[in-house]
Design brief:
318 residues; alpha/beta; TIM Barrel; eight-stranded parallel beta barrel; globular; oxidoreductase; FAD-linked_oxidoreductase-like
């Protein structure tokens, strides 16, 4: 072979791209459909690092604002106001165990509404062991009636596909399931739309079993499944252990044993693809949305969504 022919052959090999097959197109379409309408979580300090969310997130993306113990309500409201001004519906956390009393809760609601036009909230117990005041659960917050009185249009509650040792120390699902049954009944009396926003997991099979079990138990609330965004493996393992992630943690542990993958960032490609395929094959599957925890950074997570979500991942000003 002449040098010229050899060089042409090598260039052709380097420039080769595998043609997309019908199966690829089907799979890609399922993932794009599954990611459509995804939400993402920020904190005031992480939001400050983003110059303009419109360069990262699709128009209308719901943005949760995590309220970590010790974060001033002023910072929370300011973040909500900034996101709303950029055109994003905001869903702040209301962690029951860090709210002192009914008056404090009413003040937070009024400030979010008056200063940022907030109409939705994630209600949860919160990660602190001892309540600072009269509330110890999301149920206690709902029982005040303050969210209905304020006309909130959407309320989300926490879900735990792999259980929660803080709620069920014996490792069962008894207490978390009982709480979800109560919230299902509450959803039938409130004007607000309700859904379950879950802790993140790394494997599709236990998520699917849990979702199917809820439906069989008569819990019809839509599920927004928590997914950890791209991040360093060590970072994810640290967060997973701290947040009580259950059996699916073995996915990360197995990856950590593979030296060829140890230094590569984790991406949620496999779990998303598996859930998307299941949703495509079972359109009535009760997981309706993806909720990202951007543990590796908001920009990193948003970039992954743009690259994998097609039109559903495009930023607002694309």
């Amino acid at each position: 072979m002449s040098p010229k022919r050899y060089w042409e052959a090598m260039m052709a090999l380097l420039n080769f791209r595998r043609r997309e097959t019908p199966a690829d197109r089907t799979a890609n379409g399922a993932v794009e459909a599954f990611l459509d309408g995804y939400s993402i979580e920020v904190m005031p300090r992480t939001a400050e690092k983003v110059e303009d969310f419109r360069t990262l997130l699709p128009e209308g993306t719901r943005v949760y604002i995590a309220h970590i113990e010790g974060t001033p309500i002023d910072d929370m409201v300011a973040t909500a106001r900034r996101l709303a001004s950029e055109g994003y519906p905001v869903m702040p956390h209301f962690p029951a165990r860090i709210i002192k009393d009914r008056a404090t809760l009413a003040d937070w609601i009024a400030r979010y509404q008056g200063e940022a036009g907030v109409e939705q909230a994630l209600l949860l117990a919160g990660g602190v062991a001892q309540p600072v005041g009269e509330f110890d659960s999301s149920i206690a917050l709902m029982e005040t009636g303050l969210f209905d009185k304020a006309g909130f249009k959407r309320l989300h509650v926490a879900g735990h596909p792999e259980g929660n040792r803080d709620i069920d120390p014996d490792g069962s699902m008894k207490n978390v399931s009982q709480a979800l049954r109560w919230k299902q009944k509450f959803s039938e009396t409130t004007d607000a739309e309700m859904a379950i926003a879950t802790q993140f997991c790394f494997e599709a099979a236990p998520i699917i079993r849990w979702a199917d079990d809820l439906k069989a138990a008569g819990i019809a609330l839509p599920i927004h499944i928590g997914i950890a965004g791209p991040a360093k493996l060590q970072t994810l393992i640290k967060f997973a252990i701290a947040c009580g992630v259950g059996p699916s943690l073995k996915v990360l542990q197995k990856r950590a044993m593979d030296v060829t993958k140890l230094l590569l960032p984790y991406e949620p490609t496999e779990v998303i693809a598996d859930l998307a395929a299941h949703k495509a094959a079972n359109p009535d599957f009760n997981i309706t949305n993806v909720h990202f925890f951007p543990l590796g950074g908001i920009k990193t997570n948003a970039t992954w969504a743009i690259e994998n979500g097609g039109a559903s991942g495009r930023p607002a000003n694309a």
